[in-house]
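REQUEST ID: PR-0412
SUBMITTED BY: lab tech R.K.
PRIORITY: routine
TASK: structure prediction, single protein chain
INPUT:
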Amino acid sequence: MSNFTHLHVHTQYSILDGASNIDKLIAKAKEYEMKALAITEHGNMFGVKLFHKTAKKHGIKPILGCEAYVSRNSRFDKTGTEDRSGDHLILLAKNKKGYENLVKLISYSWTEGYYYKPRIDKELLRTYNEGLIVSSACLGGEVPQYIMQGKLDLAEKAAMEYKEIFGEDFYLEMMLHKSGVPELDSEVYKNQVRVNAEIIKLSEKLGIKYIATNDVHFVNKDDAEAHDILICL
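STATUS: complete
OUTPUT:
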């Protein structure tokens, strides 16, 4: 697995969602001879300093990022429930400028956009787009959401909007999690298969590259049950 880099990873700093201890996460990456690893907490960058320090100590390149919540309207709109949590979007810093812009985006999500969750909007993304690599995220992303709703024209429009903002640094994201639990696989896994098929079509039609991620929330397969309990909290 030395040539594969996880670009969508949650640690224990994704509160009540991630179950990955940073030390154990880095140790596992080291065991698999991975050269780099990303951190993408839900709406925050609380673990960035510890993650960076630990990764560097063990000779692994730390990729600093966040899974942001993006309001489809203005971040200042705090009425109703339809847009209260926003769509997911993966933001990764590719250089110092990108890290500075990432810090600004996440800071504004808490100070200006907070409504149930810390949210940014596309106005902020257009202002602070330099130095960022962006991908369309999990099933909670805007593009996958439109695909699951059968609104393929809106999925295409959303993908093109992100391409306009980030250019070649915007990627469509695919993931496939077969849990072996029939109830989960009938919903999440089936939707992932459906979304992935449409993402490939969008990629070919729009000229947007796609990446494979794995939406990591815990370190070992045996941790799945404990993570389930964490989610239930």
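NOTES: Strands lie at 36-42, 61-70, 87-93, 119-120, 132-135, 170-174, 210-212.
REVIEWED BY: pending
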